[in-house]
Amino acid sequence: MIFDTLLLQADAGGAGMSQLLIIGAMFVVFYFFLIRPQSKRQKEQKNFSESLDKGQEVVTASGIIGKITKMEDEIVTLEVGTKVYIRVTRNAISKEMTDALFGSSDKK
């Protein structure tokens, strides 16, 4: 009788450990498929934003296509037509949309 009770308690402890391993595995999956790629995209966007230069054609997050004519600290002036200029913040320029439209972000 006592031996059976000890066996049942040992089995219950093993179930807790397997649940802990499953939760740990789920965290690892979330990290590699959700958290890590998102932080990588944020880092790439930041590097792209810092590397903007005059004369470069870019696309804003809202889809406006323009050529950089003037750059201040966080404000970028884009020429969107003949003598038509708009001012946008530096982080409004999308790396993904610029790369999709113009190819590599290294082109100017």
Characteristics of this structure?
single chain, 108 residues, alpha+beta, SH3 type barrels, 2 domains, four-stranded antiparallel β-sheet, 2 helices, 4 strands
Account of the 3D structure:
- This protein is of the alpha+beta class and 108 residues long.
- The chain folds into two domains: 1-50; 53-102, SH3 type barrels (Roll), CATH 2.30.30.
- The chain has two helices and four strands, in the order H-E-E-E-E-H.
- The protein has a four-stranded antiparallel sheet with strand order 1-2-3-4.
Give a quick precis of the structure.
By secondary structure, this protein is an alpha+beta fold. It is built from two helices and four strands.
Secondary structure layout:
Elements: H1 2-50, E1 57-59, E2 65-71, E3 75-81, E4 84-89, H2 95-102
Antiparallel strand pairs: 1-2, 2-3, 3-4
Described by its quaternary structure, the protein is single chain
User: Based on DSSP secondary structure assignment, what is the total number of beta strands?
Assistant: 4
**Outline, from the CA principal axes?**
rod-shaped
H and E order: HEEEEH
Radius of gyration over all CA atoms, rounded: 26 Å
Helical content band: 40-55%
